[in-house]
Amino acid sequence: MKTIQAIRGMRDILPEQTGWWRRMERQLYAALAQFGYQEIRTPILEPTELFKRSIGEETDIVEKEMYTFEDRDGSKLTLRPEGTAAVVRSYIENSQWQKEPLSRWYYMGPMFRHERPQKGRYRQFYQVGVELLGAEAPAADVELIDVMLQCMGAIGLQGFTLELNSLGCMSCRPSYREKLQIFLKKNQEKLCDNCRRRMDTNPLRVLDCKVNTCRQVGEEAPKILDHLCQDCGTHFQTVREGIEALSIAYHINHRMVRGLDYYTRTTFELLADGLGAQNAVAAGGRYDGLVSALGGSQMPAVGFAAGLDRILLKLLETLQKPETPESIFVVTRGPGAWPAGLAVMQNLRNKGLVVRSDVRQGSIKAQMKRADKDGARFVLVLGEDEVAEGAVTVKDMKAAPDSADKQKKIARDALTSYLLEKLSVANGVGK
Ligand code: ATP
Ligand code: MG
Known about the structure:
Blueprint: H1 15-34, E1 38-39, E2 45-47, H2 48-55, H3 60-65, E3 67-70, E4 76-79, H4 84-93, H5 96-99, E5 103-112, E6 124-133, H6 138-154, E7 160-166, H7 173-186, H8 193-201, H9 212-220, H10 230-245, E8 251-252, E9 264-272, E10 280-286, H11 290-293, E11 301-307, H12 308-318, E12 328-332, H13 338-350, E13 355-357, H14 364-373, E14 378-382, H15 384-389, E15 391-396, E16 407-411, H16 412-427
Parallel strand pairs: 1-5, 7-8, 12-13, 12-14
Antiparallel strand pairs: 2-4, 3-4, 5-6, 6-11, 7-9, 9-10, 10-11, 14-15, 15-16
Bound molecules: adenosine-5'-triphosphate and magnesium ion.
């Protein structure tokens, strides 16, 4: 029979890899908590309209990357392609600004985009996203960039470049857009078909086109930073001062406009060395117009999202595998010893220890082999003799062959404290 395969671009994260994921997630939670950010969990499905209105119709995501389908009543649903739109929907729906003037939120979970799958690019991928809602001041932008870099540091990511730009605001961007359009029209024979079309509808997107000739045109195009209004200019200058005060290295990228329509003012991207074409690991910026565009009040905000799949690819190049705690394996000889073995295991697990057995109940030799394969530190042997004596034979697999600890008979009521002491040293107390 033909077997069923996972959907293209969607992959399993197998138990041998989830240890890496859990460690990364734990480190992120801890770093975010240090800045006072709290987690929000929103549904994976949202009304399609939410993404059309927030991300914008003229974007790669909305034009060709969304998983959209009809619900039973005919309404259109979309698997979330990113997190900010849903966060803002929730922020408005729950009248969050009435509860607190500043909201520091983060989310973590799967996103879905119908892209061509390749290394570091999947159709189901994972992001951590951080949003700071309620502050227009440059200090908010600086905090977000600080959070982003602290998060990367916490999980051990090294070797990256921060790129920075400003997209201006609704008062200065339109006139820049016009100037850019005039320039692009003059150079349109050098642009790809896609950009020739976008030149009219979304000229800023031409700047981040990856086609070589378009890039060259983009390099020579008028720069948005030269056309910011005074407020946007001062704002951006202050953001730079803050980043410099934190000794964060960065460089200005005039061509970074980000794919989403809702960005205003500061935009930033974090590029990791050595990831090839898929080297953007995190990106974000200010989106002062989004809350009101989705029907809320005028509410400034800034955020970023980091791609966890790519970060992990990079981490796997350098980091050591997370350590598993030392464990115990219980071997029972004969059917009479099995119930006693169960009670011993239950007792040890209740004390927080990691305990396994070979539930196939094969020969003692087969069980010992399993214990060895599992890398158990202590093997507890219970035969009819031990059961009669109320004791357990404890083998320390790490002890030297001539050591007294190599094999010891221990009374069952002394067993827990004996193992706890040995294992708390090995695993680090309180871990
Ligand atoms: P790219 O230019 O690589 O397509 P993007 O601008 O579409 O990225 P964003 O929407 O800014 O990406 O998402 C933030 C981060 O999420 C990216 O920097 C990247 O690390 C990650 N990401 C985006 N799309 C994918 C994907 N299909 N597979 C894996 N990670 C992704
Ligand atoms: Mg993309």
